[in-house]
Design goal:
Blueprint: H1 2-28, H2 37-89, H3 98-111, E1 125-127, H4 135-146, E2 149-152, H5 153-165, E3 174-177, E4 197-199, H6 206-216, E5 220-221, H7 225-230, E6 234-235, E7 241-242, E8 248-249, H8 269-308
Parallel strand pairs: 2-3, 5-6
Antiparallel strand pairs: 1-4, 6-7, 7-8
């Protein structure tokens, strides 16, 4: 009987310990603490429901974390591309993306043509300092044309041959420069886009470029939306472009004031500053992504710990 009593006391101690743990968990989970057969099974039912809810919460947390992982990875890739572009800009004066500069370099080296004889249009024109309020809108309008390579007639045949047989690393648009392209009938309106631009001094391409702007980009810089509506071709400071009486365009995928997207001009000092600022913002966003992931990890760990208990 003495041995049986000792064994029973051990069992009692074990059950008391289990009961105390059970009651503590019941308090934490806001369940009934007065234990009866009915309340025990009711608590069990409620606990299983809470467990299922926790599992669903964990899945939601994992989904959010996965989204932040994707964001972090995209930031990492974009930051690397931005750093490469910034490093490239610091070795030159133009504002064009590095891939386009590399594409031209390969053409010039293969054909033994001096780089200055195959300029991009954007390198030879810029918005006048006194017209900076129009810069963003003009950059939007002339972006595609600015990325076009200008090919003098003497190099036309060999450039054609090279481009045709070579798998280029990107898209190339180029113009053949003919003497017959030079037309210098300047617009009468002082609000014309032409008068907002200045062209690189002492360039052999200026006459052709002026003619091209006059022929293809004779847009009015409208000071009001009512004036915009009256013109056949016009732009607003906000970046709305009217290509004809029926076709209109506005591209807000990037801010009209985003200097990192500008390409016109022969000095990239402002663009370098803009990219450096953008790089700092990338670092902040990168830190934010890691912080969000860490918070979600802790939240998931806390829920998992409660499930185990």
């Amino acid at each position: 009987l003495q041995k049986q009593l000792i064994d029973e006391r051990k069992i009692l101690t074990t059950k008391q310990t289990a009961f105390e743990k059970y009651r503590t968990l019941a308090v934490n989970l806001l369940l009934q603490t007065k234990i009866t057969q009915e309340s025990f099974y009711e608590n069990k039912k409620l606990a299983e429901a809470k467990l299922q809810k926790n599992l669903e919460t964990q899945k939601e947390i994992e989904k959010k974390r996965d989204e932040w992982v994707i964001t972090r990875n995209n930031l990492h890739t974009n930051r690397q591309e931005l750093q490469i572009e910034l490093d490239s800009l610091k070795t030159r004066k133009d504002l064009l993306p590095g891939l386009q500069i590399e594409l031209r370099r390969e053409i010039c080296e293969a054909l033994n043509i001096p780089i200055e004889e195959l300029p991009y249009a954007s390198e030879l024109m810029q918005v006048k300092p006194k017209e900076m309020e129009w810069k963003g809108a003009i950059e939007k309008l002339l972006n595609n044309f600015g990325r076009s390579l200008l090919v003098p007639d003497k190099h036309y045949a060999e450039v054609n041959s090279y481009v045709n047989k070579t798998k280029l690393k990107g898209k190339l648009v180029y113009f053949r420069l003919l003497d017959t392209d030079n037309r210098n009938t300047k617009p009468s309106s002082s609000d014309s886009l032409f008068y907002k631009l200045e062209f690189k001094p002492n360039s052999n391409f200026t006459s052709w470029l002026e003619a091209r702007i006059l022929n293809d980009f004779n847009y009015t810089c409208a000071k009001s939306i009512s004036e915009f509506q009256k013109e056949d071709r016009a732009i607003t400071k906000e970046g709305l472009i009217k290509h004809s009486r029926t076709r209109h365009e506005k591209d807000d995928r990037s801010s009209i004031t985003d200097r990192s997207k500008y390409i016109l001009g022969w000095s990239n000092a402002d663009k370098v500053k803009a990219l450096e600022e953008e790089l700092k913002n990338f670092d902040k966003k990168y830190e934010e992504a890691y912080s969000k992931m860490d918070t979600l990890d802790k939240e998931k760990k806390s829920i998992h710990k409660n499930d185990i208990e």
